[in-house]
Design a protein that fits this description.
Length: 270
């Protein structure tokens, strides 16, 4: 592509500087930038549970169809937990399956990781203050010239311009589960626990069937009004699923188990 400074290469550098929501940086990306679309190839792009729902609905597919066509399983290196990531096209550049001539064909529902670029996001537990803290960092790729032009803005201003806050809130507890597992170190995770985490994280239809078509409701107390909501609302189902995962994986008492619940083989807490 003309205009790209070829000597810059394709190296990726993560600046070892912790950014806050008030930190300032310069960036712009639009079709007129010489490197436009080069960041849309050879990606290892994780999909959040909310990403899956939004893109699936935009494409008018079932979750199974979307997962089969556009995703592949991936094990998060620090936590060892399985998630879905976007499957690249089988071409020489390994381009994103949603990359078109004019750019992203699903731009309005693009994944959270795409919205954050060129920022990275992390979450850690402040044990002294007993609260979670967010942090950000800047990813500099050799070909990217958007970091050299445009208006200066704060991290929070950029997040709001990309519609990020409303997409993070629904999956905050999911991120907490991953963070908690990371903090436990390299302990062995029961296969059943991994299966449950992957089901809740990637496939609301299967999780809904798990609730209503197995002995689940014989074991756990669920408010009847909430049950009616999760029958048809995938976002409500996600919120319930994260609390249930915290209950069965970490022993947190967020979903009550019935006193007369039948004895069944269950996941062992981490």
């Amino acid at each position: 592509m003309e205009g790209i400074q070829k000597l810059k290469g394709y190296e990726k550098i993560i600046e070892p500087i912790r950014l806050t929501s008030n930190s300032r940086f310069i960036f712009q990306c639009y079709p007129g930038v010489p490197c436009f679309k080069l960041c849309c190839s050879d990606l290892h792009l994780p999909l959040t549970p909310y990403d899956i729902i939004r893109i699936r609905d935009f494409l008018k597919l079932s979750t199974d169809e979307f997962m089969l066509l556009y995703t592949e399983p991936f094990i998060l290196p620090k936590s060892g937990l399985p998630i879905a990531r976007l499957k690249m096209r089988d071409d020489e550049e390994r381009t994103c399956p949603f990359l078109g001539e004019g750019g992203c064909t699903i731009y309005e529902v693009r994944p959270l990781a795409c919205r954050y670029y060129p920022l990275g996001f992390g979450l850690f537990r402040n044990r002294d203050e007993k609260r979670n803290e967010e942090f950000y960092y800047l990813v500099k790729e050799g070909f990217c010239q958007g970091l050299e032009s445009g208006s200066e803005m704060t991290v929070e201003e950029y997040r709001k311009s990309q519609g990020i806050p409303g997409l993070e809130e629904p999956i905050f507890e999911w991120a907490e589960i991953i963070m908690k597992k990371e903090s436990l170190g390299p302990i062995e995770v029961p296969e059943k626990s991994l299966e449950l985490f992957f089901m809740v994280s990637t496939n609301p239809e299967r999780f809904r069937a798990f609730i209503f078509e197995t002995k689940f409701l014989d074991i756990f107390e669920v408010d009847p009004n909430l049950l009616e909501e999760i029958k048809k609302d995938d976002l409500k189902l996600l919120q319930f699923g994260f609390k249930w995962l915290k209950t069965v994986l970490f022993g947190e008492k967020l979903i009550t188990k019935k006193k007369d619940a039948p004895s069944v083989k269950r996941a062992k807490p981490f």
